[in-house]
Amino acid sequence: MKIFVVGATGRVGQKLIAFLEKQGHIVYAGARSSEKITETENIKPVFFDLHTEPEEMAAKFADAEAVYFVAGSRGKDLLQSDLYGAVKVMQAAESKGIKRYIHLSSAYALEPEQWQREGMASLMDYTIAKFFSDRWLIDNTSLDYTILQPGALKETPGSSLIEISETTSGAIPIEDVAVLLGEMLERPATYQKVIKVQAGETPISEALDQLQGVPLGLKRMY
User: Fold this and answer.
1) Please, where are the H alpha helices in the chain?
2) Each residue of 23-44: pLDDT tens digit?
3) What is the pTM of this model?
4) How far is CA 78 from the centre of its chain?
C-alpha cells in the first residue's frame, strides 16, 4: 500500500515509517524537516507544512491510499499544527478520495471530566487541542478513521505487549505505539473506533484481533 505519514520526523513518526517500510509499504514521509529523512526504495521524503492550505496538502499526498497523522508541536504551535493543521489534513484526505485515516491522539482527550486527573494539568492546552481535532474527525468527516489514545509515551524498549482498555491509559513505549499504528492499518475492525492503549500483557496482533465486534468509540455529538 502507498501511505502518507504526517509528522515523519517525530518520535512516533520515525519508528512508524521504519515499521511500514519493513512491511513492504511505500511511505511518503511528510515533515517540515524532510531533509532529515533518509530516502530509500520505499521511503520518500516529502516537505509538508501544517500551516499550508488543504489544497496544497492534498497535492502532496500524490497517490497515497491512506494517511497517518502523528505530528505534534510539543506545545509550541498547538492551534495551528495540533488542532487546525490536523483538521486541514483530514479535509485534504477527503478531497483526494482517501478513506483510511489513522490519527494519533492522547489519553483522555475526549473526556473533559478526566482532565483534572493527577499529572494532566500541565497538558491541558494540548489535550484541548486534541479534543477538538478528535471531535472534528468523528463529527465532520466520512473517513474510515481510527483514533489512537495512548498513555504517556516512554522512550524505553518496546515489548509488543499491550492492553486496550476503555477506562485507563497508562504509560507505553513509543516503539509499541508505532507498531500498533502500523498493525491497525488494514484492519476494518479498527474503523470508526477510539482506542485507548497502554503497556500490558497481550501481543499487539492478538489485542487487535480481539477488537472484532467491540463497540469502542463515540457517537457524534451534533
Assistant:
1) 11-22, 54-61, 84-95, 124-140, 174-183, 204-209
2) 999 999 999 999 999 999 999 9
3) 0.93
4) 16
